[in-house]
Amino acid sequence: MFSGGFDLQVMRGSMNTAMALAKRFNIGSEDAVVSLSCDSSLQWSCGCQGASLLLAADYRIGVDGAFKIGLNEVAIGMTMPHGGVELARGRLAPVFFNRSVILAEMFSPKEAVIAGFFR
């Protein structure tokens, strides 16, 4: 199973529903993963927690295509969860860490390999 990230309809609903979903994701409960889905605005991309799920995997394999991969939470007004920041710190090449976590830069699949999203 793979997910494009948090269900943005839930995240945009209310502060309470957004916080409940984020809390479930950060504790790692199974129902949080089931509740994740790809929003149509993120079609053909891996962002908004999808990239954090990718970084959590031991084996990360991808294909080349017309899509982007990155940690875009701050670009859409969210705060990066602490767990996602630490995953990025441990998996991404240092030169790509700030570009990903602070600047929310999105990368082509080839750039994502260099950054460390795939290994």
UniProtKB/TrEMBL annotation:
It comes from Paraglaciecola psychrophila 170. This is Enoyl-CoA hydratase. It comes from the Bacteria. The lineage of its organism: Bacteria, Pseudomonadati, Pseudomonadota, Gammaproteobacteria, Alteromonadales. InterPro entries: ClpP/crotonase-like_dom_sf.
